[in-house]
Each structure stands twice: as structure tokens, then as C-alpha cells.
Design goal:
The chain is α/β, with parallel strands linked by helices. Helices cover about 35% and strands about 20% of the residues. The protein is built from 13 helices and 15 strands. The radius of gyration is 21 Å and the shape is globular.
């Protein structure tokens, strides 16, 4: 299970910690010696590493609560069968912020100051992650593989302790633009988007990608995460009779939009669904017969697609998830993403020159061709000076039957 520690227990654990590289526990943190002279070793010892994450386990984005389940399953697997990360057993603490930035700040401070984690391994959401970026930078705590595709995270040179993981919303929006230009070169487009940086980022990139083409956006409707439904917005978009509908919404609202589209038999647009909502948990409530032909982006394999039945990474994921997280939906792409993120962290920590916060910061900023078992063939993580986007390629997939069907080739936006 994902652990949530009380304050007293967390303080006792942190104050009693002996650290790697010869450091010693202290209220103000710990430091390394030798080749790691003066670097921070709070939260990491020769035998343990403590990580913390902040997710919306409740509230309008609670569907993302499947992500830490995948992460925890991976850590339980490597703790039991591989001795952890380089001999260090992983302890993973998860906090619930309800998708509310003020709560993200509160829970992040608890992880850093009371639980004394080595790194914050994921905050989920654009506004929520941005709310703690300054704080973590000032405290020199890695905020690694933030669960958002916000373009600003990758482009940010002012916060070296923070980095994303998934393809940016710019990468995704450009990919959809390229697909629509190719498949429907003179299409009219209607857009449903979340009225925040997530939705606006995607829409901005799509508009950039269709410049100079015959594709035109003819209708837009936004919504707030506090809205009860998006039915009215979808009805308004239907009046445009657009040939393509872009569904730039988080899972709850994405599912509502898919259902509203299916109910309207007078309108049959190509439905493009953002990859952050393309899970079976979003599709099943709508009814799989009602989402046939839906298009989305992908950078991970689909557990429901038989093409990956004999894939080593998929076989490991399915067998170990069943063993260490029985009852968790193996086909939920959020769970899969959590597993892949955890493996990505594992490889990043292992590549660090020093087992310190500074070492992790440097490692996450110098990834070179690092892959995880659930990533699509050809997709690897690469970062460097001025490049804070680990993954910059996606595939395009269409929902057919009971799973996503991946088209040949990848769309790489690293040079755009």
C-alpha cells in the first residue's frame, strides 16, 4: 500500500537517518563527504531512499489517483526482487491535494520539512506543480518528472530542480495538427478545452501547427474544473457542424464530452482525445461501441492491444502488477504511466554520479537515450543544457474494437 506517515513518526524517521557518503542526520538536513562533499543527502542512506508525491486522490481529477498505484507497485517489485534502487529500498509517501494549488503547497511542505524526503517524485497538474516550484528550488529539492505536459516546465531555465517527463502539450498539439492536416486537409475544427494552462497550451500548439493549411478552427468552448458538466459546451460546438472535435479535457470531463458526442446522432466529427484522458477508465463508462474511431496521441504501449502480448516490458508489467497490486486495473493507462515513470526514476537515480539531491538534479538534466519497458519503440528520454523536455515524440492511435490501434511511425517535434 502507499504509505502516509504521521508527523511524529516522520520526524523520528528523518532525525534517525544515517546518510550516504558519510553524512549524518540533522534538523537542517544532511551532507555528503568525499567525492560528494557538501551535497545534500537528506532522505537517502546506504540502504534506503525516501520519496514523496502529491496527487489529486480526491476531487475533480481523482482519476489520476491510479498513477501512484502503478508507481507503488513498481517500487514494491524492485524492493522485493532487486533490493530496491542500487541496494536502497524505496519508501514512497503520497499526499492528496484534491487538485488545489494551496493544498499542494501544504502537502509538499509536509513532505520536505516533516517527512524529509530525498526528492518530490511527482506533483500532478500544471497549476499545482507551478505552485511549489519556487519553494522546492529554494530548498534545492528535486521535483522530478512532474506529471504535466506544460510547455513552460520544459522551457523553464530558472528552476533547475524541476523537470517534466511526459511529452509536452506543445508536442501533443503539434502532433494532432499534423494528423488532421494529413487526414483532413480542409477540415473545420471545434475545440473543447479546459480553461487553464493545460487546455490553452494544447489549443495554442494546435493553432500553430495548422498555420498555412486549409484546416480552420471554427468554434471554441472552454470550461472550468469546478463545472458540473460540459454538456452545454458540447451542444454549442455541435451547432458549428465542424468535421473535427478536439477534446482537451481531463478524464471526468473528457468522458462527459465523449458521451455527449455519442448521444448527438446528427453530428459525427472525428473525435480527438488528449492523451492525458485516453485511458480505459475514461472510455468504458461511455461504452466502447460509442468511442470507435476516436484518435489520440501515445508514447506508451497499450496493455489491451494484443500486438504487445509477447513484449518483454509488457509481460513484466502485467505479471508484477498482478503480484504486487492485485485488483488494480492493468489496462488503465494511468497505472501504466505510473509504472513507466517509476522505472524512469529508477534509471535516472542509478545514473547519478553522487547519491545526493545535487546528483539527482544533474542526472535528470543529462539523460541520454534512456528508455522504459512500457515506452513505444523508438521513444527515449533525452535532456541536456537548454533542453528540459525528456520525451518529444508521440505516435497517433485510433480506438478500434476494444483497444487503441497504433499507426506506423512517430511524430517527433524536437526540432520544432
Amino acid at each position: 500500500m502507499i504509505r502516509t506517515l504521521g508527523v511524529a513518526a516522520a520526524l523520528l524517521t528523518a532525525l534517525g537517518t544515517l546518510t550516504a557518503c558519510g553524512g549524518r542526520g540533522a534538523e537542517t538536513g544532511t551532507v555528503g563527504t568525499g567525492d560528494c562533499q557538501g551535497q545534500q543527502t537528506t532522505g537517502i542512506t546506504d540502504t534506503t531512499i525516501k520519496l514523496g508525491g502529491v496527487y489529486p486522490l480526491s476531487g475533480p481529477a481523482s482519476a489520476y489517483g491510479a498513477i501512484p498505484k502503478g508507481i507503488q507497485a513498481y517500487f514494491d517489485y524492485i524492493n522485493a526482487e532487486q533490493g530496491g534502487i542500487d541496494g536502497r529500498k524505496v519508501e514512497y509517501l503520497v499526499r492528496d491535494d484534491g487538485y488545489q494549488p494551496p493544498k499542494t503547497v501544504e502537502e509538499t511542505r509536509r513532505l520536505v520539512e516533516q517527512d524529509q524526503v530525498f526528492a518530490v517524485f511527482q506533483t500532478l497538474g500544471t497549476a499545482t506543480s507551478a505552485a511549489v516550484r519556487d519553494y522546492l528550488d529554494q530548498r534545492k529539492v528535486p521535483q522530478i518528472f512532474v506529471a504535466t505536459g506544460a510547455t513552460e516546465i520544459g522551457a523553464d531555465t530558472e528552476h533547475p530542480w524541476t523537470i517534466g517527463w511526459q511529452p509536452s502539450y506543445r508536442t501533443e498539439g503539434l502532433a494532432y495538427a499534423q494528423h488532421v492536416r494529413t487526414e483532413r486537409p480542409n477540415a473545420t475544427v471545434a475545440v473543447l478545452y479546459q480553461n487553464d494552462d493545460f487546455g490553452k497550451d494544447l489549443l495554442k500548439a494546435f493553432r500553430e501547427g495548422i498555420e498555412g493549411s486549409g484546416v480552420t478552427v471554427v468554434a471554441e468552448q472552454s470550461f472550468e474544473v469546478t463545472d458540473p458538466t460540459v454538456d452545454a459546451q458540447v451542444r454549442n460546438l455541435a451547432n458549428s457542424k465542424a468535421e473535427v472535435l478536439l477534446n482537451f479535457a481531463t478524464p471526468k470531463f473528457a468522458s462527459q464530452a465523449l458521451a455527449a458526442d455519442a448521444r448527438n446522432t446528427d453530428w459525427n466529427p472525428l473525435h480527438v482525445l488528449t492523451q492525458v484522458s485516453n485511458t480505459m477508465a475514461t472510455l468504458r463508462p461511455v461504452g466502447l461501441p460509442n468511442v470507435q474511431g476516436t484518435v489520440s496521441a501515445a508514447f506508451l504501449k497499450d496493455a489491451a492491444d494484443p500486438r504487445w502480448a509477447d513484449d518483454e516490458g509488457m509481460r513484466t508489467y502485467k505479471s508484477k502488477l498482478a503480484q504486487y497490486a492485485p485488483g488494480v486495473d492493468v489496462e488503465n493507462q494511468h497505472t501504466m504511466a505510473g509504472w513507466a515513470m517509476a522505472e524512469s526514476l529508477h534509471k535516472t537515480v542509478s545514473s547519478a554520479t553522487c547519491p545526493t539531491r545535487e546528483g539527482l538534479r544533474d542526472a535528470m538534466r543529462s539523460l541520454d537515450g534512456v528508455a522504459a519497458g512500457l515506452m513505444l519503440p523508438g521513444i527515449t528520454m533525452n535532456t541536456g543544457e537548454g533542453d528540459g523536455y525528456p520525451i518529444e515524440a508521440v505516435g497517433i492511435q485510433t480506438f478500434v474494437g476494444e483497444h487503441w490501434s497504433l499507426a506506423d511511425g512517430l511524430i517527433d517535434t524536437s526540432g520544432k
